[in-house]
Structure formats: structure tokens, C-alpha cells
Specification:
This protein is of the alpha+beta class and 314 residues long. It has two domains: 95 residues, OB fold (Dihydrolipoamide Acetyltransferase, E2P) (Beta Barrel); 183 residues, Orthogonal Bundle (Hypothetical protein af1432). Helices cover 39% and strands 20% of the residues. The strands form two sheets. A five-stranded mixed β-barrel has the order 1-2-3-5-4. A hairpin with a 2-residue loop joins strand 2 and strand 3. The chain is elongated and about 70 Å long.
């Protein structure tokens, strides 16, 4: 099988892929065509069916596994597939594990490392709250391990939410060493659960799309509600501590225009915002570099509002 990450301009494709998305469109000249997103475990690629009525294009839909015959071309510094033929595949012709993007890091090892941070929390209320999610709630644990951290922007793969969470926790752990004023137990707890709402905001792969709850509320509100539900079951949980923890979650995007219901009002919320933004931005840039087939200037990127430059290691 030729994986998407190995595509080069001019390649010929004849393999099975997951159709992550299918949408009909019309050119400026009124000609119908189909936009597709093909996916395997290494990533996604845009594809075009310029002649949907071609008898070689079989019936298929979003989330079907399809055998694709076509050519890889470059358009505006991005690769895409010009599809000539498609056949919908039957169960047994493919292994689903080949088509779901998965973290390059070991999921169980990352989760064990996350648990080590929970065991180190000295505040009994915060430790009990973290254990309620990450030790006692088996359904939550299963979903958390499988969830992505985003639909497309960063950590958009199985295990992505865990990988991002651990990255944020490690940054916050460093902040606590560098800035002793920070309340370590509060900041580490906030880092561990800052994105737990994404377990309900996004569906699991292969869909990895926004749920109704995610569209209505978003992961920040969902996560705050999830924390509130667990806190109510912990007798004597201090109200001020509850408010500080929830505030960190509500403010972790930092600015209203980035979807944050609150702006940081305590130093731990400021630290969490910086850690979250750092891990997300560095991972986003990493994924851009990994997806690029070019060195040098890569063109303007709207997320960074800058013309980005990549350098291939020799």
C-alpha cells in the first residue's frame, strides 16, 4: 500500500483508502464535480472527481472504504489526487487500522505518565477529582485514549488528546519549577483536565467530527460541566478551589475571540493558557512541516498569519 505521506507529484495511485468526506460541487462553467478527502493512518489528501458520471466511478459515500485509481498532482503547493476510477470495497478487503491516523507515541505509556502526575498531586480534593476521571471512570478513560485533540488543526489523530494533554502538563510542570508562586496542584490538575470536554465535543474516528453537544456548547463549557458533575460527588470539596479550577478551564483559550468565555484572572489560568497555546502551535507547525514536500518558503499560512519557512534535515 502506498501511504499518503509518501505521495509525490506525478505518482499514480491504485490503492484502498477511507473516504473521509465527499461533497458535490459545480465549476464556474457549470460543470459538476466531486470533492473528496481520502484518508489513511498517515494523513489525508484532497481528491477531485472531474467526471462523476464516468462509468468507472462506482457508487460510494462518506466513510466508505474505496479503491482509488488516479494521479497525484500539485496545486497551490499542496498535493491532490485526480481520480479516474473508484470502486467501493467490501468488508475483509481492508484493515481499518491502516486508515486511522494514530499518535506516533505509545498511548499506554503516555497514559501511565499522566497517571504519575496525578499520583503526585498532594491536595486530596484535586487528587480525588483527577482519580474520578482517570482511574475510576473506565468509559471516560477508554474514550480519552482514543480521542483526537482537534478535527484538523493539531493533534488530529487517535491518541491526540492524550498526547496534547501530556504536553501541556509537562510545560506546566516546568512553569511550576521556574515560577514558585504558581500553585502546582491547581495548575497540574487544570492542565490534566483542560480539554476533557473534547471527549464529547468530537466523535471518535473514523468520523472525528463535531457532535451536536460540541456544536451547541463547545469543549470548554462541556469540560467545565463535567468537572462540576464530579466535584458534586466529592464531599467537602472547597468552593473556592472549585471556582479556581473551573476558571482555569473557562479561561484557557485566553481571549474572547479565541472562544474563551473568560479571560485569565489568576496566575495559574495565565500559565495554562500559555502552555496550551505553546503545545498547540508547535504541534501545528510540526504537522505543516511533516506534510510539506518542499524546503524553503512554504507560503502564507492563515493560522500563523505569516509566510512560513521549512528546512529539511539532512
Amino acid at each position: 500500500m502506498k501511504y499518503i505521506k509518501d505521495y509525490k507529484d506525478g505518482d499514480r495511485v491504485f490503492d484502498i483508502y477511507l473516504c473521509k468526506h465527499k461533497q458535490s460541487a459545480v465549476t464556474k462553467n457549470g460543470k459538476s464535480y466531486d470533492n473528496l478527502i481520502l484518508q489513511d493512518k498517515t494523513g489525508t489528501v484532497d481528491a477531485k472527481i472531474w467526471d462523476p458520471n464516468n462509468p468507472g466511478i462506482g457508487d460510494f459515500d462518506t466513510l466508505d472504504y474505496i479503491e482509488v485509481y488516479g494521479d497525484v498532482t500539485s496545486f497551490q503547493n499542496a498535493l491532490q489526487v485526480n481520480v479516474k476510477r473508484i470502486r467501493r470495497c467490501q468488508e475483509g478487503e481492508f484493515n481499518p487500522a491502516d486508515y486511522l491516523p494514530v499518535s506516533s507515541k505509545n498511548i499506554e505509556e503516555m497514559f501511565a505518565e499522566l497517571l504519575s502526575y496525578i499520583r503526585a498531586i498532594e491536595n486530596k480534593y484535586l487528587r480525588k477529582l483527577m482519580e474520578a476521571f482517570f482511574v475510576e471512570d473506565t468509559e471516560f478513560i477508554k474514550t480519552f485514549k482514543q480521542s483526537s485533540a482537534a478535527k484538523t488543526v493539531h493533534h488530529g489523530f487517535v491518541g491526540g488528546l492524550l498526547e496534547h494533554t501530556l504536553g501541556v502538563v509537562k510545560l506546566c510542570d516546568y512553569y511550576c519549577k521556574a515560577y514558585p508562586l504558581l500553585k502546582k496542584d491547581l495548575l497540574i490538575s487544570a492542565a490534566i483536565c483542560h480539554d476533557i470536554g473534547k471527549t464529547r465535543e468530537l466523535s471518535l474516528f473514523p468520523e472525528n467530527d463535531y457532535t451536536d453537544e460540541g456544536q451547541f456548547l463547545g469543549h470548554i463549557i462541556i469540560g467545565t460541566e463535567m468537572i462540576g458533575e464530579k466535584i458534586r460527588r466529592i464531599e467537602g470539596f472547597p468552593s473556592l478551589l472549585s471556582g479556581e479550577l473551573k476558571h482555569c478551564i473557562l479561561a484557557h483559550h485566553g481571549e474572547y475571540e479565541y472562544g474563551s468565555p473568560k479571560k485569565p484572572a489568576i496566575i495559574e489560568a495565565v500559565a495554562l493558557n500559555f502552555a496550551d497555546n505553546t503545545d498547540a502551535k508547535i504541534q501545528t507547525f510540526t504537522e505543516i512541516l511533516n506534510a510539506s514536500t518542499e524546503s524553503g518558503w512554504l507560503g502564507y499560512n492563515r493560522l500563523f498569519e505569516s509566510n512560513l519557512r521549512g528546512t529539511k534535515l539532512e
